[in-house]
Write a structure and sequence with these properties.
288 residues; alpha+beta; five-stranded mixed sheet; 5 helices; 23% strand; disordered N terminus
């Protein structure tokens, strides 16, 4: 009988415990906490872009060199959902930062900004227009995500994205290639910086004019090459590993410096950065 009483007591305690657990507050999903953010990675599917945590911005670039006779092109800036996909499309709120934007009125058109129903990834879709000025300048468009009734803001480092376009040499996206640029062109505090903030189209043109580099995507010509999706098949600059050994980057920086001095003599003025944080300042080769 005692044994049976103990069994009954134990079952009663277990039942009480289960009831207590059932009465406790259980966290459940609430759509009101769904948020939106830009990417914080350098590669997402087939989209390759640069992200700088220092600048808290993701950078993308399009060059009409890829479609030189096109009047316009459509570009999708990815946005990501933090939360569960919804049964309906959700609009993504944003503002265009006037201080960081150089694209004039009429040079672009915002087509849509949404995360489709059932999806965790959406886009701000923009139509970019080709123009004669883009052979000598770069337009930039800086987006800042905003909170809306449908979506909150994600983590603060991932709320800015900058799209630039021209019809000149495209800006590299992979950090290993960006570092090569900073080894050759003065701007970042460190020559091994991977920040793209100082990159300009004119400086890239100067590197190309000085070195003749346009084949770094070709594995038959370079042991260390960019001939893969990871490096975007970028052909105008090597990965830093190709010029870092043996201090070759110092010699190449001197070649770029000589070209910039020649440019100044021929044009009567220095070549200026046409985009980036050094906009309007002379392009200068890094010295060692």
């Amino acid at each position: 009988m005692k044994t049976n009483r103990y069994k009954l007591l134990l079952l009663g305690m277990l039942a009480a415990g289960i009831t207590a657990c059932g009465d406790a507050e259980i966290m459940t999903y609430d759509a009101q906490y769904d948020a939106v953010r830009f990417t914080g990675v350098s590669k997402q599917d087939t989209l390759i872009q640069a992200f700088s945590l220092t600048d808290r911005c993701s950078y993308m670039n399009y060059s009409f060199i890829e479609t030189p006779f096109a009047e316009s092109t459509e570009y999708a800036i990815p946005v990501f959902l933090i939360g569960k996909p919804a049964a309906t499309d959700r609009t993504v709120a944003y503002r265009i930062d006037p201080e960081k934007t150089t694209a004039p009125e009429g040079s672009y058109e915002i087509l849509s900004a949404s995360i489709p129903a059932g999806k965790s990834m959406g886009a701000i879709k923009v139509r970019l227009f080709n123009a004669e000025e883009l052979s000598s300048t770069t337009y930039t468009l800086r987006f800042q995500l905003q909170e809306s009734e449908e979506l909150r803001l994600g983590p603060s480092p991932y709320l800015n994205s900058e799209l630039s376009w021209n019809n000149s040499i495209p800006v590299p996206a992979n950090t290993n290639i960006i570092r090569s640029y900073n080894m050759l062109i003065a701007g970042q505090a460190s020559y091994v910086s991977t920040s793209p903030s100082c990159i300009s189209s004119n400086a890239l043109k100067a590197i190309y004019a000085a070195t003749g580099w346009d084949d770094w995507d070709d594995p038959t010509k370079h042991t260390i090459h960019n001939g893969s999706e990871t490096y975007g098949y970028y052909k105008y600059l090597p990965r830093y590993q190709a010029i870092y050994n043996g201090d070759a980057y110092k010699a190449y920086a001197k070649v770029v410096a000589d070209y910039l001095e020649q440019y100044k003599e021929e044009h009567g003025e220095a070549l200026l950065h046409d985009s980036g944080s050094l906009l309007g300042e002379p392009v200068t080769a890094r010295t060692y």
